[in-house]
Amino acid sequence: MQGLRIKSKRDWFIAFVFAFLFIYLIALKFQNRISELLWPLTPDKISLLNQPDGQGVFAAAVLAMTALSIGVMIYKKVKGKYLVFALVGGIVIAGAAIGVYYYECQSIINIPSECKPEGVSVTYHDERGPSFIDYALSEKTKDQIVNKVLALQPLSGEEKKELNERNDTGGSGGETSVSIWYPKKDGYSYLISVSMKDNVIYTCRGRSPESIVIYQDNGLLEVLEKMKT
């Protein structure tokens, strides 16, 4: 055991590198949960399917490593200024990772302004049937649907609460789904998916109820109804 003791700065550096790798692997186990914590910084039409991954886990690992480092420094009775350096350094690095995440999100949502969609699909599924319909779309209808989906605005928290009291998006019945996918650009791919049920337009960005975004209708429901007739 004597050979495993940390004796030099080099030993400390190696120990901290291995500790960070261990913490990072643990953070990976909670990647989905960490990703959902970033929803406030994430545009509403980005889901787990195309959300930039890695930055959130890295930021969480850095913050955990910072806390561990400060704990060790306190135990070793290191001068207070070094504690401040460690704290500020950890926050700056984690903040930079979140900044990269935000930049990548903006790059993804800018894809529709630079590229035309590769495909647009509208499907209907009724779990009571069961029945499934994949609608044939004209180019004009596709353009109308894309323009309406891109222009959708999420309801405010209060409006969402009021709507949830009148409707249940998780109930039984038919559901219409719209999917729009774009070609990969600069390493990013973009898929937009929204659903309509009981005249409510929404998208499930993740796995938790908090990840559901409900939109205000801007004429999309009318376009879809005309398409079905």
Largest sheet strand order: 2-1-4-5-6-7-3
Separation of the first and last Cα atoms: 78 Å
Total number of beta strands: 7
Structural class, from secondary structure content?
Answer: alpha+beta
Radius of gyration: 24 Å
Q: Helix content range of the residues, please?
A: 40-55%
Strand content is: 15-25%
Poorly predicted regions are none
- Shape call: elongated
**SSE string, helix = H, strand = E?**
HHHHHEEHEHEEEEH
* Count of the domains: 2
Transmembrane segments: 12-30, 57-75, 82-103
Keywords: Membrane, Transmembrane, Transmembrane helix
Summarize the structure.
Keywords: Membrane, Transmembrane, Transmembrane helix. This protein is an alpha+beta fold and 229 residues long. It has helices spanning 9-29, 31-37, 55-75, 80-109, 111-114, 139-150, 157-166, 220-228; strands spanning 119-126, 131-134, 153-154, 174-185, 188-197, 200-204, 212-216.
Your description of this structure?
α1 crosses α3 (55-75) and α3 runs antiparallel to α4. Helix content is 50%, strand content 20%. It has 8 helices and 7 strands, in the order αααααββαβαββββα. The protein has a 7-stranded antiparallel β-sheet. The protein is of the alpha+beta class and 229 residues long. It folds into 2 domains: 2-109; 115-228, no CATH class. It is elongated and about 80 Å long. A hairpin with a 4-residue loop joins β1 and β2. The model has no long low-confidence stretch (mean pLDDT 86). The chain crosses the membrane at residues 12-30, 57-75, 82-103. Keywords: Membrane, Transmembrane, Transmembrane helix.
